[in-house]
Each structure stands twice: as C-alpha cells, then as structure tokens.
Design a protein that fits this description.
180 residues, mainly alpha
Amino acid sequence: MTKKIETAVNKTVEHGSTCLSRDDSEAFDRLYLHVHSLEAAARETFQQQFRDDYRAVVQKLQENVPLDAADRELLTQLIIADARSYVKHQKEYEGWKDRIAQLLSDLKKTQAQGVRTTEDLLHIQAICRDLRAVLPDIAYFLRERERVQSYARNDLQALPPEVKKLLAEIVDAMMKSDKM
C-alpha cells in the first residue's frame, strides 16, 4: 500500500471512530469528505499501476491485433474489477431487501388503518424517507452485478474491429478520468 493510501486510510478510520462516539452530523459530513478523498486516492493509485500497460492494450484494440491472456486480464481489471470487488464484498444486499419488505409492510398497514391524521401523513413520509435511503444501495448493487455478468458474457476477441476501437477509446478515457 502506498504511503498516500495508508495515510488516507488512517485518517478515515480515526475520524470514523470519533464520529461513532459523538453522534454529530458535522462530524459525519467531514467523514464523508475523508471517504471521498480516500476513494479518489485509491482510484489514482490504481490508474498509476496500469498506466504503462494499458496503452499497449489500447493500441492492440485500435489495430485489431489479437489480445493475449494478459491483455484480456488487464482489460478485465480496468473495466470491471471495481464492480466485481464491490459485488463480492457486499454483505448487506439481503438485509436491504428485508428492510424494504418491512417498510412496504408498514406502508400497507398504515394504509389499511386509514390515513386520517397528520400523524398518519408524517408516518408515511418517514417510511418513504427510509425507503429512499435504501433503494439507491440496492439499485447500485444490482447495476454492478449486471455489469460483471454482462462483461463475462462477451468475448473480447469476437468483437468487430469498430467496437474494439470504441473500447480502446473508452479505456483510454477511463484511465485519464478522475471519475473511474
């Protein structure tokens, strides 16, 4: 692990521990910034690790030269390694689904009892807020899982030359982006 990443991890963990003991919204906002910085540093380090190797693969794709196993593995690392790692290590998916089922049940129960009071409306708002907090996590997980599955179904060697050129442009742009 590089010194930059190690320092960012330490700051994030230290600040996170402080946040958990304080229950202070501003502290958690600062933790969010630490996490964002750590993620950016990890992305930059990842890009630097492959900076020289990816150019050769991009050139092969542009020239429609067959890719060897190492080239295909490098493309896999660049294109879906983040999604594969996220899907592999995500342990909350079933809990998120259970939470949504519970919230929908609460919503149905509230409806069955009749929505008559201000408190009923506020309760519906609270349920909706909780649903909105969980739904993006599930959607993101499923998109990443689908991305991995879609990549696995495609044979890079069988792609038409124009698609390989497009893939080369995408990989090149990804490696130059601060959003990868």
